[in-house]
Design brief:
This is Glycosyltransferase family 9 protein. One of its GO terms (biological process) is lipopolysaccharide core region biosynthetic process. InterPro entries: Glyco_trans_9, LPS_LOS_Heptosyltrfase. Pfam families: Glyco_transf_9. It is a single chain. Helices cover 29% and strands 13% of the residues. It has 2 domains: 160 residues, Glycogen Phosphorylase B (Rossmann fold, 3-Layer(aba) Sandwich); 152 residues, Rossmann fold. By secondary structure, it is an alpha/beta fold. It is built from 12 helices and 10 strands. The chain is globular and about 60 Å long. The longest helix has 13 residues. The strands form 2 sheets. It has a 5-stranded parallel beta sheet, with helices on both faces. Strands 7-6-8-9-10 form a 5-stranded parallel beta sheet, with helices on both faces.
Amino acid sequence: MTSEGTAATTRDRPSSAPASGSARDRPVPPSTPAPDGRPELLALRALKLGDLLVAVPALRGLRRAFPEHRILYAAQEWLRPVVGLIDAIDDLLPTHGLDAPLPVEHGRIDIAVNLHGNGAQSRGRLGEIGAHRRLGHRSPGWDGPVWRPGVHERERWASLVAWHGAPADPLDCRLGLPAVTSPVPGAVVVHVGAAYGSRLWPVERFAAVAQRLAASGHRVVFTGSDGERARALAVADAAGLPEETVAAGKLPLDRFAALIAGAELVVSADTGAAHLASAYARPSVVLFGPAPVTEWGPPPGPHTVLTDASVRLGDTFSPTPDPALLAVTVDQVLAAAAAHGIA
C-alpha cells in the first residue's frame, strides 16, 4: 500500500524519475500555502488515501502537542477533500511523491515530521527544507525510536509521535463527515478497484456477490477511480445490473467519502475505500491479499477481514492477484455480509 518504510521496509522505493535540485534551488509554486504568522509543522506522507487515514491518530497527537502550530500535510493534491475532514490538519502542501524537493521555502518550517517512512529519500527531502526540529525514527542524523518491522501502521505512527512527546491513541481514527450528502444513502458499496493488480479480486467474483445482494433487494453501487471504470462496468454487466449502478470515475473524493459514510455495507479489497469504512465505522468486508492484516487491518468495529495468510506472497506491486486474495471465495464474502445483517 505504501512506498518506502511503510511497506515493512525502511528503504525508499526507487523513484520514477531522478531527484532534482535542492529546496534552495527551486522557486515555491503558487499552490504552496502562504505563511499566516503561526509557527509551522510539516508532516510528510506523500502517499495514498489509506495511508492518510492510518496516520490520523498520529496527526491528532501532534495537534494536541503543538496547538500553536499551523499543521501542513504534505501529500498529493487529489487528497485535499479528505484532508479537509481531519481536524488535526490546517492545510495541504501539494506534494507528488519524493522525486522533487518539497515545495516550501528553506528555513520556513519549525518542525518537520517524517510520517512517510524511514528511508533515505524521505529523510533527505525533509533535511533539505532546513526545519528547526525534526521528528522521525532513529537513523543517521535523526533521533527517535528504532524502526520496528511488523507493527500496525496506526500503532507505528502513533508511537513515533508519542516518543517525541505527542501522546496519541492508535484507535483515534474517526473522520469528520463531508459537507456534501451521499449520492446513494444506504447503498451496498462494492469497490472493485485497487492501485495494484495484487489487490484485484476477480471480476466474476465481485459480480456474483453483487448479483446475490441486489437480488435480495439491496441497492448496489460499484465504485472505483476513473481508470477503474471499465472494470466496474464489466462487474455490473456480469452481475446483470444496469450502468446506472456504476459510480466509478464519477464521484469527487468528498462525495465518495459521503457514500461510504452512509453505506449499509462496504465490500472492498484493502484499499482507501476500506479505510474510509473504518473511519466512519461502517460495516465492511475487507479482502486482503499482499498486505499483512496485522499491519493494515481495520480497527475494532463492524469489520470482517477475509484472506488466507498461509499462501500470501506479499508482493504489493505485483500485476497479478496475491494468492491470499484469490483464496477468498464468493460464499465467504456473502457469509460475512450476512453476519453484518446484509443477506
